[in-house]
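so im writing up the methods section and need the Cytochrome c oxidase subunit 2 record in one place, dumping it here so i stop losing it
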Amino acid sequence: MAHPTQLGFQDAASPVMHELLHFHDHALMIVFLIITLVLYIIVAMVTTKLTNKYILDSQEIEIVWTVLPAVILILIALPSLRILYLMDEINDPHLTIKAMGHQWYWSYEYTDYESLGFDSYMVPTQDLTPGQFRLLETDHRMVIPMESPIRVLVSAEDVLHSWAVPSLGVKMDAVPGRLNQTAFIASRPGVFYGQCSEICGANHSFMPIVVEAVPLAHFENWSSLMLEDA
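--- predicted struct ---
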């Protein structure tokens, strides 16, 4: 959950998000070193009155400043490609959920069950209870078992939407007439908030996503109660 004046990412709640945070730190350190080097060169050239003829025309320096950027790009590209493949990897999901975007709410269907599905609307400000977050709380949460591979099929009924939960490292476009899929594993119990990340009309800001990760036994109890009420 993000908090005011926060500068970094939210705490990771999935293995993929942990990898993304590590890659962010890796890339940021490389950028920091480049900025430091360039700033030093600029300051040195502006402040010194000396001229080195070997720097003005040097084959060796041209080779260095051609090869060095290529090496840096490789150091950034290889871990980036690894994470991209990890994000697309879907192996034997324990649960499949279909998330449909509407103007302006989400509907969820647990496809492994015969009749388990519901709509998820934002809780209006005047109906919030103490401890709930404005513009982020929903009347029905998407409940999942923790430490289990979850596959989410994402689509939309009307316009473009985007199903995104930052703590889980998940963001997938919901396109009408197209079924996209993504997967994640919640590594710890908790409530994770997200929002539609594609401008989808007047109430784009009012269709939040709430994912609640619980132990498997609690999930089975919840699904049994939902099926009884259906």
